[in-house]
Write a structure and sequence with these properties.
- 55% of the residues lie in helices and 11% in strands.
- The chain is α+β, with helices and mostly antiparallel strands and 561 residues long.
- Among the domains are: 148 residues, no CATH class; 97 residues, no CATH class; 108 residues, Phosphohistidine domain (Glucose Oxidase, domain 1, 3-Layer(bba) Sandwich).
- Strands 5-12-11-7-8-9-10-6 form an 8-stranded mixed beta sheet. A 4-stranded antiparallel beta sheet has the order 2-3-1-4.
- Helix 3 crosses helix 7 and helix 7 packs antiparallel against helix 15.
- It starts with 13 loop residues before the first helix and ends with a strand.
Amino acid sequence: MKFYDVVPGLDFMEEYDLEQSPAWFLDATHSVPPWTPMFGWFWINFCRHGMQYGAETLSLPTVKGWDWRFKDGGGYLTLLMVDSDKEKAEREKKFREAIRPFVENYDGLWGGYVKEILKRYENLKALDVNTASNIKLLENFEETIDTCRRMWEIHMHMMYGTYTPYVLFEQLCTQLLNIDDTHPTFHKLVAGFDNESFRVDRRLWEFSKKANDMGLEGLFMETPSKQMKAKLGESDKGKTYLKEFDKFLEKEAGWRMERMAEINVPTWQEDPTPGFETVKMYLKKGGEFDLDADRKKIEKERKEAEKEVLGKIAPEQKGWFSMLMKVAQNCSRFSEEHNHYLDLYTHALMRRSCMALGNRFAKYGAINQPEDIFFLMPDEVRKAGINPDKLNLKPIVQRRQKEWEEWNKKGNPPAIFKEGFTLEQAIGGLVQSLDPIALKVVVGSMPVPKPELKADLLGTCGSSGMAEGIARVVLKDEDLPTIQKGDILVAMSTSPAWTPVFSMISGVVVDRGASLSHAAIVGREYGIPVVMNVFTGTQVIKSGQRIRVDGNLGAVYVLDK
């Protein structure tokens, strides 16, 4: 039985797909743990469309985007390469022109896209899903699907347009300065820029100060975050605080979810527990913590690095170098801001639409509970949307839910290769492609063996520096409150909702990641070492062990075995 029962080209079919491409990589950054069926359908369809759309609108010289497949809850990808040298040359001419707006008018280009997508969101939110007819709910669902399509077009046009110059800038730094994006100086050059994720974190930090000023610190520290909303509602001071916090969620951050690439977890508006937990985290930091001061320090270091580096560049090369550096610096901004405006917001509205239909389906007995809708396909939703009382979808849900539970137990291999094809060949293909998303976000570079280091784990550098502390292994969002000041976070990957945790920790170790993944970018912004692509960190390291993280060499040492 195939997961996608009737739609070809979505499920991974070994006998067919390995003939198309000898190497398919798991997107462990987004599809671990395994996706639910509904979200998998959205991602495979529209991320694939968006990547090919972005590659073609920019005429990338070496790749035409990616193809995607679904296997056991995981998203697998392969690059669509440009094969002929003649076509590469033709595309490169077009690319040089297409990339100019990203260099000359990044803020105008990105600002226009943000305005466009926010208008779509407002249209979707205008419907009262509690009172709407079945037909109106179904119409909202179709509009949400179209919004997801458009989001991925914007997403990948912007991502390819900013990340490709990042790769070119790194190449120029290697050529002229003998440094790459693992070097401390490079990290300083691309850090110290504010973005919407940090602005949300700053607002939460301000709420921690407000809690202290209003005499609510004790209440926060004594009350489990899950009960915080109810507890605040018991006093006048608490009600005043809660009113402002609710307004903040409605206008600025309510669409945050603890997992960016899924829709089966509640938003902060549905359950503000993570927001309260973040406020509590900042309160734990104590009065010596100053988020703005920390940010200014990173900004100052960047300006000093810019001055030092530009002093080493020949006059005739300085203009092109400065131009590429500016676009590369925008990568860090865009990486966090696109999560805020695109992924999280769209996925929150996907969840809103699906849950509205799920509530209606459960009411009329088509499914057992609203969340069961995440185990359906859009065509099944359409079939039952108008008359949910006339269709029993429970057997389909039960079958897929059982499969999904099995996927969560066994996991997916990091890559699937055609017989005789090696990892070295696959990585060689990635490097030749110059695809910035594969190289710098999803797959990343593989660790280089360094037996002389005698490290317990070897990865790649995401953020330079060294740290020693107690390891805190976080496998799910509910584990975040266990983190204490000075801990070293060990995780499979990190999400934008985890950003405030970086203010408490002294280092990060992630199983998967690349230089423009969330862990690396935020680590650089907070000035803490990050080691990525260790693959088995969450298995080898146990919470409570003392470890040393060497971000410069990509090495991790377990000190008390």
